[in-house]
Amino acid sequence: MFNSKHYVPILKWKRAELGALKMLEKKRKKYVTPLIQLVMPSVSLYREEGKKRIRKSQEEMFSEIVVKFKENRINKIPEEITQSWGVEPMFLDVSLLHQAENSTKLKIDSMNKIVLAGVKLGTRMIPVIHLDDDQLLRETACSLAKKNNSGLCLRLVCPDFLNLAEMNHKIMHFLKSNKLNEGDVDVIVDIKEIGKNDQVYEKYFDLSQEITNLKKYRTFIFASGAFPEDLSECKIDEENPISRLDWINWKNKVNNNGLTRKPTFSDYTIQHPVYRESVQFFPPTTSIKYSLSNEWLIMKGKKQKFDKYLANAALLVDDDRFYGDSFSDGDRYIAEKAKHFEKYIRNPSIKGTGSTETWLRAGINHHLALVANQVANLS
After folding, report:
1. Please, what sign has the CA dihedral across residues 242, 37, 306, 366?
2. pTM of the predicted structure, to 2 decimals
3. Is residue 47 part of a domain?
4. What is the mean pLDDT of residues 270-294?
5. Which of 14, 90, 216, 270 is the most exposed place for a label (fewest CB within 10 A)?
6. What pLDDT is recorded for position 335?
7. What is the dihedral of CA 361, 363, 366, 369, to 10 degrees?
8. Is 183 among the domain residues?
9. Number of folded domains in the chain?
10. Are residues 93 and 59 in contact, defined by beta-carbon separation less than 8 angstroms?
11. What is the CATH number of the domain that holds 186?
């Protein structure tokens, strides 16, 4: 389907990610195949009772989240994906969906509904499964893969590699029992968080080269994430560079001529690879996260101080490292907000600082454009 000169961003399917993908230029989309992870929707922390605001219990919120996903959210996802991405192949992962009882049923129902609805819209959605998924979920994914001629994506994670021989045996058994060939399957090795430990990256990168019949799979992808869980170590009003170790390590490893097969690069853009739903209930700092060739530039603001977005945008566009307003839709957004800064300072009642969502969208869109360029220009 594609080779190592390609990019697989892993995106939680929320409004910021949806918008970032939608605004990615066609010339760059040809180097990109997103892996979309469905997540449960957010709900309000409070409910109104007369003139009182009462905080909901955890059970009440969780029940509301599940109902909202089943009755509202799930029906909108296929069209959202089609409008944002088009009809080109993309990976669909349901592993983060859950409910109080029988989460497997929710995952199966969601995969079926969304993939089949996507087929009607002309979008090629490739189901993603894990080795330890429930058998019914794996069978559902295999059935959809064959019925729609889309193929299947097998997502391997660190615990799978604890016993390499056993993992390879499980994979071969899975393929044989479901009458699949390696050529029908995309393999993504996802080690998630790597932090600053290069040895962890090297260990799993090398182990991934030992997958049986590695050259025969339709595609081979190696994913990791180096963006921090939070910005607590970053300082306000100072430059905070953070190395893009996921990209740096990948580049260093793929230049090794002794590889069985060069993998495609995959990352979590400007977000931490481990998803924590509880984070949505806490306001983040108003920080700009801007991707450079080998690092992220973090311009940290304060919580709820949205004018900091404008102030930092003004600083960024005057920096030699800014890619320019024509580089991506995200860069255009940053440049427009920078121009608005002087007006806002004179009259803070003028709206237009942007929101957490729009700034995240801009940062992700810029990152997608940058990495698409980087993989396109690989030697």
Report:
1. positive
2. 0.94
3. no
4. 83
5. 216
6. 96
7. -70
8. yes
9. 1
10. no
11. 3.20.20
